[in-house]
Amino acid sequence: MEDKFGRKLNYLRISVTDLCNYRCQYCMPENGIEHLKHEDILSFEELYTIIREFVGLGVTKVRITGGEPLVRHGILNFIESVARLKPIEDLAITTNGSLLKPLAQSLKDRGLHRVNLSLDTLKPDRFKLLTRGGNLQDVLDGLHEAMRVGLKVKINCVLNRGINDDEIDDFIQLTETLGIDVRFIELMPIGDNVNYAITHFVSNESILEAHPELVQIDAEDPSSPAKYYQYKNAKGKVGLISPLSCNFCSHCNRLRITPEGFLKPCLHSDIELDLRTPLRLGESILPVIKEAFAVKPEKHLL
Asked: Which of 63, 2, 4, 7 is nearest to 252 (CA)?
């Protein structure tokens, strides 16, 4: 199905929990947030029903997110059930990597294709500070184990001025030494941390200015939010995701589901459509999904 702007919406990003075992500084307040009640979060059966309906309408890519999705009990069986849906071509998970090492082989065996690893520093002390207590080695072990078992891995690094912008070179070198893609993401001024994002914003343009040897390459997927660059002879790529300085909405093919069952046609829009109520009343959710296709905005306003 296409929206009214002719965009083919074939990518579903679905959050299975609001819980996370980290409290990253740019993501949430130091005291944490008020979590959803258990009964307000969709069951895996309800989530599966939603994905199945979307697949029937042409969705071929599914990304499972959180919070931290690997903290939710039963996630492996859920991934296995989703992987059986046809014609899903790309089943991915976004994770902080802290629980990845012991689960990587099982994730691969259950049908997962790809891991988006959120990692903002390669310095142990800084990592502990940014995540408010995390252990960098757990993440690095998970990264290497995921690669060993054959999962495709991308690193997502959110740049913070005065925090980790001195590590840009170190992350770029991973595209040479490990041959994986590293994507730098500009901070977005949303939620409770608007002021933080404004004061710590780093433009991706500054990366290109400091690294003129990076050569832009053709995009494999025109709907990707990243522009890709590469060092000569490097196996991995450097991706720049610039939601503020470079609007990529014209190619957006994504829809998002929150853990409590709201369908968001745009992550940065206030539009939320209720899927949980019809699900729990035993009614079809197809009208809600079709409405999302109709009301997806042309672009976000940030």
From this structure: 7
SS3 276: helix
How far apart (Å, rounded) are the C-alpha atoms in residues 295 and 266? 9
Dump the DSSP string for 95-156. Answer: E-STTHHHHHHHHHHTT--EEEEE---S-HHHHHHHHTS--HHHHHHHHHHHHHTT-EEEEE
What is the phi-psi region of residue 243: left when phi exceeds 0, alpha when psi lies from -120 to 50, beta otherwise? alpha
Task: Retrieve residue 206's tokens.
Answer: 């500054």
Give me the tens of pLDDT residue by residue for the chain, a chain 302 residues long: 788 889 999 999 999 999 888 877 666 666 666 778 889 999 999 999 999 999 999 999 999 999 999 999 999 999 999 999 999 999 999 999 999 999 999 999 999 999 999 999 999 999 998 888 899 999 999 999 999 999 999 999 998 889 899 999 999 999 999 999 999 998 876 666 667 677 888 888 999 999 999 999 987 777 788 899 999 989 999 999 887 655 678 888 999 999 999 999 998 788 999 999 999 999 999 999 999 999 999 887 65
Report the SS3 class of residue 245.
coil
Integer Cα distance of 203 and 65 in angstroms: 25
pTM, two decimals, is 0.91
